[in-house]
Amino acid sequence: MQTVDTGATRTPLLNDPAKRSLIYQVGVLLAVGALAYYLVSNTLDNLERQAIATGFGFLEKESAFEIGESLIAYSAADSYARALWVGVLNTLKVSFVGILLTVLLGTLIGIARLSTNWLVSRIAAIYIEVFQDIPILLQLFFWYAFFYEMLPAPRQALNPVAGLFLCNRGLIFAVPAEHPDWGWAGWAFLAACGAVYLLRRWALQRLFKTGKTVPLFWIAVGLLSGLPLLAWLLGGAPTAMDVPELRGFNFQGGVSVSPEFAALLLGLVLYTAAFVAEIVRAGIQSVNRGQTEAAKSIGLKPGQVLSLVVLPQALRVIIPPLTSQMLNLTKNSSLAVAIGYPDFVSVANTTINQTGQAIEGVALIMAVYLCLSLLTSALMNWYNKKMALVER
Amino acid sequence: MTVHVYDSRTAEIKPPVTSVGVLGWIRKNLFDGWFNSVLTVLVLALLVKMVPPFVRWALLDSHWLPSGSGCQDAQGACWSIVTANLRFIIFGFYPHDLQWRPLLAMIILVALLFYSRNRKHWRYALGWSWLAGLAVMGLLLRGGFFGMAVVESTQWGGLPLTLLLAVFGLTGAYPLGVLLALGRASRMRAVKTLCILYIEMIRGVPLISLLFMSSVVFPLFLPEGVTVNKILRAQAAIILFTAAYIAEVVRGGLQAIARGQYEAAESLGLNYYQTMRLIVLPQALKIVIPPSVSILISAFKDTSLVVIIALYDLLKTTKSVLADPRWMGFSAEAYIFLALIYFCCCYFMSNYSRRLERELDTGL
Amino acid sequence: MRRLSAGLAMVAMLVLIGSASAGTLDDVKAKGFIQVGVNGELFGFGKPDEKGVWRGLDVDTARAIAAAVFGDAEKVKYTPLTAVTRFTALQSGEVDVLCRNATRILTRETSLGLNFAQVNYYDGQGFLVPKSLGVKSAKELNGAAVCVLPGTTTELNVADYFRSTGMQMKPVVIENTSELAKAFFAGRCDCLTSDVSQLAGTRAVAPNPDDYVILPEVISKEPLAPAVRHGDDQWYDIVNFSVLAMIEAEELGITSQNVDEMLKSADPKVQRFLGVSPGNGKSLGLDEKYAYHVVKLVGNYGEVFERNVGKDTPLKMDRGLNALWTNGGLMYSPPFK
After folding, report:
1. How far is it, in rounded angstroms, from Cα C182 to Cα C205?
2. Among A32, A133, A352, whose Cβ lies nearest the Cβ of B343?
3. What is the fold, at CATH topology level, of the domain defined by C22-122+224-317?
4. How many helices (H) and strands (E) does chain C have?
């Protein structure tokens, strides 16, 4: 092809692959540059002629609008930059929770699809087909309508369990009241996580050296529940709960999940789980049957067959497409704007509206999603490398 | 010479009734072990609890009359919302007495799809007939010839718009996607970098940001006095978006072509374009047909996002019906109807793509 | 090479589409219709009826402009715009004029590059609540979930109001008038805030209008006016004086019914207004009888008001601020001479 070096000195310009390729590249760059120049100069003309404000100066200004839910303190007196940051955090929140639930549900359905139970496998198949084939936006609208049309008003809220209320303002439930002891319990839990990680490494090393296994699962369960419990007991075992109650128009206290968030989460998880289920099924099926049989024949228990033989191999097939589904979920979370959950796109949209600076707004949206995508793929690539088959 | 003699009696011993026929099947597939049995019972209980009420709601107690009488205090579903507004949901603001035109356009599309199902019909002529068919569909919608009244694109809506955006989106995106894939596989640094930048950037952002761009930013890109209509802008956004995904699929196809093919072409003295056009692309594109159908499916589903920029596609027409106070509160019925339409289209396509995958698999 | 030529072709194509743009009036005359940005979902202001015919105060304003320019009120094409897209659509020239209940505020004229013409509806922001809530005043709304359209002045006003009164609110933003109303009726929020005219429209379409009340407080000034782009004064004048013509006609007592008789009026003001004695039309670059066409084909302001939002419509709005200045309202037209 073009780059073959012929070594001829007097080849005509266009027949010299290296030069020809150079000419093409310069041409392409020129064309792209010309197009970019054309668009940019038009834009600048338009902006100037119509006296439209430009630049990111607006970020410092007071936003003057409220946001329905926020992970950080925010009021209308804060700047646009902070409002947008609230939006980013809300996007991250729904994506993070969504990805966790999707992987869980998707794996469950993927395994159900392979079940020897005809009924279960059929239902899983129907689920996958139906939820894959209906646009996510339609599903979101459906769930949102479900939440605010079918659930009762706060005063008639459903109260299935003490401390838990379900109404068209969302799901409100009681949480333990503020106490320093809960912080200690949290630290204890983190410490337990670290201990389990170290223990697992040691146990694996021991396994490879001596072939002896450790009942890791039970030790982990004990550590993870025992340490926080100990911290809680030592701190005085506070039992006060922050129970939501109806004051004024809405429930005060407790933790509430808004219908917008719930509908968005439900829609995203149900939709993406259908794709994840297919991926998990394909991954498990890709593991040769002989592997399972061989594992059984050397005396591994069914749990060990799954965790030591099948899953590590299936994961290698599963992870790359799973990554792209996680990215899809994150990107689809931008549809929140259609049902009023204040994610980043929704806040950016309002900002565009209030400031009239559409170019800056859309550029911000794209930049934030690009960063999220790159970050997610970088993380997953790292994990994928770690899990990849080490070939000799 | 020993002949193996079958004992005729063994053939007469039938397996126990519990392991053949219906009973055997049930036992093998539903009650194999205690775990499966519990699972089956649980699932059956759930079905019994959910299916009859749903059937009662959706069919037995439902209302169908377009007048919508009795819907307000009915126990069942009010399908009247669909029957009363069917034409608006399907055709949007398209003039009432001209609605045969989009209908005909859709019939042409479906006919073309059905004809193309059969792989025996895949010839160059089919490609041309697709192009011709698409052109005819566009003209039918637009009108303005043979004395047909012109219908402005602002009045297009509903299912024809959804199909238009999806089909033209894929048709427009394909050549662009192939170019991008070739660019990405190219050895020219600058071209390769540009293509990678484009593909990764587009794949990294949600479609709705592109749609926003097309609806609020793009008009500012054009010189004074030049405007491009809203549907065309959304269409362009969908094309640019889909092209990046097609590029990745085609890249997969290109990578699947054995190195020897390139070398053989080169040794025959073919240049780059000849190699690509005659040797590589025909093989690569054949491999990527099934994934392309998946892209068509996602493009079809993704067209629903144009709701957000207020184009009257199928979803938007439905939503505007739902906003009518007479039909408020019947979202479930309307959305289920829409879901059925989307499901049927997508199911048809995905089923076809799977069949194709099997057929082409053996061919390679 | 192919990419290069494709790129060049694209540039060439873009240049080719580019038509030299003269004034908006010439453009409009050349294409034979006015492209108007409207709401599309707001009953009483801009919404197609069940036969697909556009109706509303803003729609009639647009028709008045078309009547002034073409002598034909139907030479209008409507582009439904969301709150987000409305100003860009105008800036980019996708629409020639925006009649979409947009509030005239300082920053929209300065940083968005728009000019607002004569106000066609003086509005103010209020609250709509279900009667069952038992709320009598907006001061009692502390802690309420408030349904509000995003990206509107409404959203800013309500935040200002709650801040200044030291109350808490939980905004529920849904980008679409009808969806928002639906969420409110379903009880997703305790109150709906918007311009009072819109609240009346929303209340009118409620499953049971008597279950809802509009609270007495009006928390903002909302002068709703048609808007045009900066820098085309002739077009601005035309839009401005098309709206003013409807107001002046009401003041002069000219209606669509009596306009033909009024042509014979001896009153010099009427004669000048209807173009019997020429001058006004020409100076605007329009037909001398442009005001006649406006009144004949669309009606005077009072007729338009009553037809779309007045007593006999589901909105049942009082003239209030929108009465003529002679009746204690704000509708006041400079003399047509």
Report:
1. 10
2. A133
3. D-Maltodextrin-Binding Protein; domain 2 (3.40.190)
4. 14, 14
Per CB-CB distance under 8 Å, the chain C contacts of B230 are 79, 94
Question: Domain span at residue B347?
Answer: 151-363
CB C275 within 8 A of CB C292: yes
Domains C22-122+224-317 and C125-220 share a fold: yes
Q: Tell me which of B31, B38, B51, B220 to substitute to probe the interface with A (most A C-beta atoms closer than 10 Å).
A: B220
Q: Are B249 and B180 in contact (CB under 8 A)?
A: no
Based on the domain organization, do A126 and A244 belong to the same domain? yes
Query: Which residues, including other chains, have CB under 8 Å from residue C147's CB and lie 6 or more apart?
Result: C172, C174, C180, C183, C184, C188, C189, C191, C192, C193
CA-based radius of gyration for chain C: 22
The verdict on A29 and A101 lying in the same domain is no
If asked whether residues A122 and A246 sit together in one domain, one would say: yes
Nearest to C223 by CA among C110, C293, C118: C118
Question: The tokens of A161 are what?
Answer: 């369990």
Provide the domain count of chain A: 2
Closest residue on chain A to B213 (Cα): A362
Cα dihedral C133, C137, C140, C143, rounded to 10, equals 70
Residue keyed to tokens 């305790």: C190
**For chain A, percent helix, then strand, then coil, each to nearest 5?**
70, 5, 25
Q: Is residue B187 part of a domain?
A: yes
> Tokens standing for A368?
């934030």
Structural domains in chain B (count): 2
Instruction: Kindly identify which residue of chain B lies nearest to residue A143, measuring between CA atoms.
Output: B332
Q: Whole-model pTM?
A: 0.83
CB contact at 8 A, A309 and A295: yes
State the nearest Cα–Cα gap between A12 and chain C, in angstroms.
18
Please state whether beta strands C144-148 and C169-173 pair in parallel, antiparallel, or not at all (unpaired): parallel
Which CATH number characterizes residue B200's domain? Answer: 1.10.3720.10
Is A36 part of a structural domain of the chain? yes
Spatial distance between the Cα atoms of C31 and C35, rounded to a whole number of angstroms: 10
pLDDT tens-digit profile, chain B (364 residues):
555 655 555 556 776 766 677 777 787 777 777 777 888 888 889 888 888 888 888 887 777 777 766 676 667 788 888 888 888 888 888 887 888 888 888 888 888 888 887 777 777 778 888 888 888 888 888 877 777 777 777 778 889 899 889 988 988 999 999 999 999 888 888 899 999 999 989 999 999 999 988 888 887 888 776 777 788 889 999 999 999 999 989 988 888 888 888 889 889 888 888 888 888 888 888 788 888 888 888 889 999 998 888 788 888 888 888 877 677 778 888 899 999 999 999 998 888 888 887 877 654 4
Element (H, E) at B37: helix B33-55
Work out whether strand C191-195 and strand C125-130 pair parallel, antiparallel, or are unpaired.
Answer: antiparallel
Identify any residues that bridge with B313 across adjacent strands, giving them in sequence order: B158
DSSP B213: I
Q: Which residues of C257-282 are buried (b: 16+ CB within 10 A; e: fewer)?
A: eebeebbebeeeebbbbbbbeeebbe
Here the ipTM equals 0.85
Regarding beta strands A255-257 and A170-173, do their DSSP bridges make them parallel or antiparallel, or are they unpaired?
A: antiparallel
Using the Cβ of A40 and the Cβ atoms of chain C, whether some distance falls under 8 Å is answered with no
Within the 9-38 window of chain B, which residues sit less than 8 Å (CB to CB) from chain A?
29-30, 32, 36
Q: Which chain A residue has its CA at the smallest distance from B35's CA? A: A117
Judged by CB atoms closer than 8 Å, whether chains meet at C83 and A65 is answered as: no
Q: How far apart are CA B303 and CA B305, in angstroms?
A: 5
Chain B residues whose CB is inside 8 A of the C17 CB are: 226, 228
Q: Which CATH class is domain C125-220?
A: alpha beta
Rounded to 10°, the helix A80-113/A118-132 angle is: 150
